[in-house]
Amino acid sequence: QVQLVESGGGLVQPGGSLRLSCAASGRIFGIDAMGWYHQAPGKEREWVATITSGGTTNYADSVKGRFTISRDNAKNTVYLQMNSLKPEDTAVYYCNAKGVLTRPWDVAKDYWGKGTLVTVSS
């Protein structure tokens, strides 16, 4: 069973920083891409950032220049460094792993973490 566990959320003042981590565990042969999504109260879940197996990064316009996604393939871990946080960044942040291969020549599947809450408020 593949599990994704997020950590690093909490309460921070506007302009502050947080670093989120997400570790994938289980029998994993490969992951095509990992990313972050967030969901604010009363809103739909939205994509934030993605890093592919080739190291290509993409960001939502709302976080470009402020957030940085990175990975450690040896640990199957993805990070999200969040700087210059704004109140509108307040949301539950979810980790996603896309194209996870758990058995040779099997169909790759997607997995989600349960989320970590980020609250930006003074």
Identify the overall geometry. Answer: elongated
Most strands sheet: 7 strands, mixed
- How far apart the termini lie comes to 40 Å
Strand segment tally: 11
H and E order? EEEEEEEEEEE
Structural class determined from secondary elements: mainly beta
Whole-number radius of gyration?
Answer: 14 Å
Mean pLDDT across every amino acid position:
95
As residue ranges, the low-confidence spans are none
Question: What share of the residues does DSSP label as strand, in percent?
Answer: over 45%
**Percent of residues in helical segments?**
under 10%
Please, how many helices? 0
Describe the structure.
The radius of gyration is 14 Å and the shape is elongated. The N and C termini lie far apart (40 Å). The protein contains no helices and 11 strands. The strands form 2 sheets. Strands 2, 4, 5, 6, 9, 10 and 11 form a 7-stranded mixed β-sheet that branches. Strand 9 (91-101) and strand 10 (109-112) form a beta hairpin. By secondary structure, the chain is mainly beta. The protein has strands spanning 3-7, 10-12, 18-25, 30-39, 46-52, 57-59, 67-72, 77-82, 91-101, 109-112, 116-120.
Descriptive terms for the model:
4-stranded antiparallel sheet, single chain, 122 residues, elongated, 7-stranded mixed sheet, mainly beta, 0% helix
Topology, element by element:
Blueprint: E1 3-7, E2 10-12, E3 18-25, E4 30-39, E5 46-52, E6 57-59, E7 67-72, E8 77-82, E9 91-101, E10 109-112, E11 116-120
Parallel strand pairs: 2-11
Antiparallel strand pairs: 1-3, 3-8, 4-5, 4-9, 5-6, 7-8, 9-10, 9-11
